[in-house]
Amino acid sequence: MTTPTEPKRSSIRSFVIRQGRLSKGQRRGLEEIYPQFELKQALLGTPQLAYPQAQPLTLEVGFGMGDSLAEMAANAPERNFLGLEVHGPGVGHLMIQAASLGLNNLRVLNLDVWSVLPSLPAASLACLQIFFPDPWHKKRHHKRRLITALFLDAAAEKLQTGGILHIATDWQPYAEEIKACLESHPSFSLSAAPARVETKYERRGQRLGHVVTDLAARAR
Ligand SMILES: C[S@@+](CC[C@H](N)C(=O)[O-])C[C@H]1O[C@@H](n2cnc3c(N)ncnc32)[C@H](O)[C@@H]1O
After folding, report:
1. Active-site residue numbers?
2. Does residue 3 have a pLDDT over 50?
3. What pLDDT is stored for residue 10 in this prediction?
4. Least confident residue range of 52-56, 58-62, 140-144
5. For the residues 96-116, what does the mean pLDDT come to?
6. pTM surpassing 0.90?
7. C-alpha 70 – ligand 1 centre gap (Å)
């Protein structure tokens, strides 16, 4: 008898939990609104059933405070969005906006991407976006970076043929590494990056004089 092979996943965390203090609004968002937007674990294998309509699905990993994800979802009612974020206050913040905008094409999980991505069906994503993942500057911390060969392998499996992987960073050496990984990956071809909404972390980088690089690749 053969045993099913466990999907490959990273056991190294790309984040440090700094929950900080929840504001009153964020607490309300997490405790009262999150259950309405949470993608139920039972639907991870059939995520389209979590939305009123089956539409192209965009997964965003690490949405931070979520303002840009809320704006994208409001601007594109013809698409469905799934946001992942480990930072509780960010999830609470997004929930307040999602409720006030009445977004029915958005679902969220307050979880690490490695607890979610392996359970999604193959070829279920039209787009996978990661904007300003923490670059982990120090050489000894590079193993904590989110965008690794293992991550690209998982992304390639979950994207449909022609689906887009879109990554933005304001850390030039990280951008160069990501570009090299994408160029050498057999399942991706570099493509033009789609337009996107400016993010909170991006504005912080710009104030510090950082140059932003958007990289995109299509799944073969
Ligand atoms: C530098 S912030 C950028 C936030 C947002 N994308 C922006 O541009 O404003 C990176 C975010 O990714 C989240 N993150 C890092 N690793 C993650 C993981 N493995 N799964 C889910 N979220 C993650 C962090 O909690 C953090 O909020």
Report:
1. 134
2. no
3. 73
4. 140-144
5. 97
6. yes
7. 15
Token digits for 47? 């995520």
* Mutation pick for ligand 1 pocket among 69, 134, 145 (CB with most ligand atoms within 8 Å): 134
Residue 95 has pLDDT above 90, yes or no: yes
* Dist CA 185 CA 41 (whole Å): 31
Using alpha carbons, list the distances in angstroms from residue 113 to 96, 120, 166.
22, 11, 16
Q: What is the distance between the alpha carbons of residues 108 and 86, in angstroms, rounded to a whole number? A: 11
Work out whether strand 80-84 and strand 159-169 pair parallel, antiparallel, or are unpaired. Answer: unpaired
Q: What's the 63 CA to ligand 1 centre distance in angstroms?
A: 6
The pLDDT mean for the chain works out to: 94
Nearest CA to ligand 1 atom 14: 62
| Interatomic CA distance for residues 76 and 176, integer angstroms | 30
C-alpha 131 to ligand 1 mean position (Å): 8
**Longest CA pairwise span in the chain (Å):** 59
